[in-house]
Design brief:
Elements (H helix, E strand, L loop, with lengths): L8 H21 L7 H121 L3 H21 L2 H45 L4 H44 L3 H13 L5 H17 L1
Helix pairs in contact: 1-2, 2-3, 2-4, 2-5, 3-7, 4-5
Length: 315
């Protein structure tokens, strides 16, 4: 390919025609026509070529400016999309932290309520049991005295017939009922123990839930930080805030652990009070009843209620 073929348009045709004419003259005459018309056209042709080249350069510069403008627009759109994704990721992380914190606060309030109920229960149960035991001992003693004196009353008063049988049956039912009264402390103590165990299980579950929520929160923060934080300094500052939140959460969970240990200690103290806190005579009576009737069942308590109902109907 000749160099003249690289120049397009009318100037290229003129240049190729000039070159052909000069070649033909050289072939015909053997010398170059220095003063010929063809040589006079060369300066103008060169000026035209330069003008065409400058116009091409201007067009290339304009095209380059358009390309750069498009690239800038694309870069701006990319930055906007990235900032939007970054904002969405940060908002999702904040929402996750907010939800976990709200759940932790809810569980903490529930834990405080359970601990308050457990403390109140541990303080009131021994007094209630002591009062019930005293009342049961008194009633059982009265019923035993009545049953022991029944034959003497029948002989002294001369009671005979249906009235004596009805009164004797009533006295025996009452004595049996109050004997069952003496068996109730063992059942009540067993119910207290089961209730304390259920409370401890509930507190253990709450503590496990808090630890699981803390671990899940840490995993979520690490995942978000690995995706977003290396890209911007502002998000790195938010990571510091998240770490402060984690540290505050850890302090709250540590306080929860201490509260849980205190509740466990209160429960064990209440159990020891229930076991060893009564007066000696009542405690011995309770231990005696507990050894005699270790398998007291709710059906026995139902029999006692039926006996009391019959007694009230007769009265």
């Amino acid at each position: 390919m000749a160099i003249t073929d690289l120049i397009p348009g009318d100037i290229g045709q003129r240049l190729r025609g000039l070159v052909d004419r000069v070649r033909n003259q050289i072939l015909e005459k053997g010398i170059a026509p220095v003063k010929s018309e063809e040589c006079k056209e060369i300066p103008q042709l060169l000026r035209d070529i330069r003008a065409q080249l400058e116009a091409a350069l201007e067009r290339d510069a304009a095209d380059l400016a358009v390309i750069r403008q498009r690239e800038d627009a694309l870069q701006a759109g990319t930055d906007t999309a990235f900032r939007e994704r970054l904002r969405q990721a940060q908002a999702a992380r904040d929402e996750q932290v907010k939800q976990v914190r709200m759940a932790a606060v809810t569980q903490w309030e529930r834990l405080k309520l359970v601990s308050a109920n457990a403390a109140e229960y541990s303080q009131t149960v021994p007094d209630q049991l002591k009062a019930k035991l005293d009342d049961w001992d008194k009633r059982a003693k009265d019923a035993g005295d009545l049953a022991d004196s029944l034959p003497e009353l029948i002989l002294l008063e001369g009671w005979t017939g249906p009235a004596a049988r009805r009164y004797g049956l009533r006295a025996m039912v009452q004595a049996k009922a109050f004997e069952e009264h003496r068996q109730l402390p063992a059942l009540y103590a067993k119910l207290v123990e089961l209730m304390l165990r259920a409370t401890l299980v509930e507190l253990t579950f709450v503590l496990f839930w808090l630890r699981h929520a803390k671990q899940r929160n840490e995993v979520g923060l690490v995942a978000v930080s690995g995706e977003v934080f290396p890209r911007t300094r502002a998000v790195t500052q938010n990571m510091g805030k998240a770490e402060q939140l984690i540290r505050s959460r850890e302090s709250e969970i540590e306080a929860t652990d201490q509260e849980f240990c205190r509740i466990v200690d209160d429960g064990m103290a209440a159990r020891n009070i229930i076991k060893n806190g009564w007066p000696t005579g009542t405690q011995l009576a309770f231990e005696k009843v507990g050894h005699i009737c270790p398998d007291y069942t709710p059906q026995d308590f139902t029999k006692y209620e039926e006996a009391l109902r019959e007694e009230q109907e007769e009265q």
